[in-house]
Amino acid sequence: MTDIDLDYLREELLQCRRCGICRNAVYEDKGFDGICPVWKNSSGFETSFMRGKIQVALALLDGELEKTPENAESLFQCTLCGNCTQICAAEFNPAESLEQVRQVLSDIPNVVRDNLVEKIIKYDNPYSEDNTEKRKWIEGLGYSVPTKGNTLYYVGCTAGMRLPDAAVYTSEILKSAGIDFAVLDNEPCCGSVMIRTGKIEDAKTNAEKVEEIIRNSGAERVIVSCAGCLKTLRKDYPEKFGVKLPKTLHILEYAEELIKEGKLRPKKIEEVQVTYHDPCHMGRELGVYESPREVLKAIPGVKFVEMDTIRETAICCGAGGGLRSYDPDLSKNIGASRISEAEETGATIIATACPFCENNLLSGKKLTNSRMEVMDVVELLAKSIR
Fold first, then answer.
1. Does pTM top 0.85 for this prediction?
2. Chain centroid to CA 361: how far?
3. Are 179 and 98 within one domain?
4. By residue range, what is the domain housing residue 37?
């Protein structure tokens, strides 16, 4: 695991020119119009966007502010979406730096974060539930799914325990393409939220546990549904912990391949107008923009339309960075804003590629009493291959 160089981290934070472009930049060529979702959906105080958070971080690191939960509060009112990074005139990575600040200041008590970590350590999921529930969705498939195999479907906590339809649709896609797959008997949480909230030592221990279990499964390929799992397994594990897993793909990356190879042949569905929400972990962090769009375009009957803020400038759904747990009301308000933006396209469906995003967008829909349907792209694809 790479230790954080405090002097370097301070230098990075001091790159901030305090220009405020990370707050409400209007940059029509890139679709920016108030780029910070927290700032747009909160009080709008200085500490609600990255410029203010950086000043708080520096004050805490330098001892100018007492290290108390109250003083560190603004550091956790952020989704770490990275939209500020896309336009930062200083050309550094504010979101990555804030994640590192959380790690350095992890000794400051944070009840929400600490409870999450305890749940993951105890239950292997953040929901305090029997972890075998992650395989319960298999009961309705009509066929058995082994726990070992060349292709491993790493379900994820949210798909397995909150939105199991995403897991069912993923299995339909794999089965239709003739792909035999396995699902772990007792799948641990990937630990993404541990990393995002600064509990890096616990995350390292968890990553080593995941590595061992996946290695013992015999997997040569890992398929995931969740954008957070994708970034964690594919990028964070090797870069932060030296943990290398088999080739890890999002199901839509794999589906795009299968469609091109002719192993999946989508058929016409009832005509619908669909817009797509880019998950931050999958888009800005890994550059996976095309696969979900190509899958949608390959489904006859789907009329695909884009929102104003897409790809590297897409506005966050509000769920990431631990915000959904730390400040659920703010998180849901951000989700509601994204729903409103989707409505402006005239689409009847907002589709995404992450159960965690889907869950928060559903909360946003409820807040706004919107008639917009929220679903995962895998649902549309699965319906087209039945």
1. yes
2. 12
3. no
4. 6-108
pLDDT digits (tens, 9 = 90+) for 126-175: 999 999 999 999 999 999 999 999 999 999 999 999 999 999 999 999 99
SS3 sequence, 300-349?
CCEEECCCCCCHHHCCCCCCCCCHHHHCHHHHHHHHHHHHHHHHCCCCCE
Look at residue 191 and tell me if it is in a domain.
Answer: yes
On whether the CB atoms of residues 202 and 188 are closer than 8 A, the answer is no
pLDDT digits (tens, 9 = 90+) for 206-241: 999 999 999 999 999 999 999 999 999 999 999 999
- Looking at 74, 108, 142, the residue that finishes a domain is 108
Q: What is the mean pLDDT of residues 36-64?
A: 94
Q: What is the CATH number of the domain that holds 196?
A: 1.20.1050
Q: How many domains does the chain have?
A: 3
Sheet bearing 349-352, strands edge to edge: 302-304, 272-276, 349-352, 373-376
Whether residue 276 contacts residue 292, with contact meaning beta carbons closer than 8 Å, is answered with yes
